């Protein structure tokens, strides 16, 4: 009922290189990669600061009210760092785009 498989199916194929890149995705120094990371950094930075602020905004019965102050400070620090990296990345991308013109 099923036709026989073609010989090409069983022929050995060359293995894919371990460091082969996906088409369109470059290294972290490429403009495409840096432009892709900007919204991710901004979103994660704002979310970390927002989660840290829930300790005081959420109310006494909130799960976040039990979060320790050092943890809140660490989340705020990490969020601020991510926002700083995003701003620096935006400035670098802007300078590179202006230099290409």
Describe this structure in words.
- α2 packs antiparallel against α3 (about 70-100).
- The chain is an all-alpha fold and about 100 residues long.
- It is flat, with a radius of gyration of 24 Å.
- The N and C termini lie far apart (about 65 Å).
- It has helices spanning about 5-10, 30-55, 70-100.
Concise structural overview:
With 101 residues, the protein is mostly helical. The protein has helices at 7-10, 31-57, 69-100.
Q: What is the 3D shape?
A: flat
**N-end to C-end Cα span:** 63 Å
Helix % is: 55-70%
**SS field, number of helical segments:** 3
The sequence of SSEs as H and E is HHH
| Structural class determined from secondary elements | mainly alpha
Residue ranges: pLDDT <50 for 5 or more in a row? Answer: none
Main sheet makeup: none
Overall mean pLDDT stands at 86
Percentage of β-strand residues = under 5%
By DSSP, the count of extended strands is: 0
Radius of gyration: 24 Å
In terms of topology, how is this protein built?
Elements: H1 7-10, H2 31-57, H3 69-100
Helix pairs in contact: 2-3
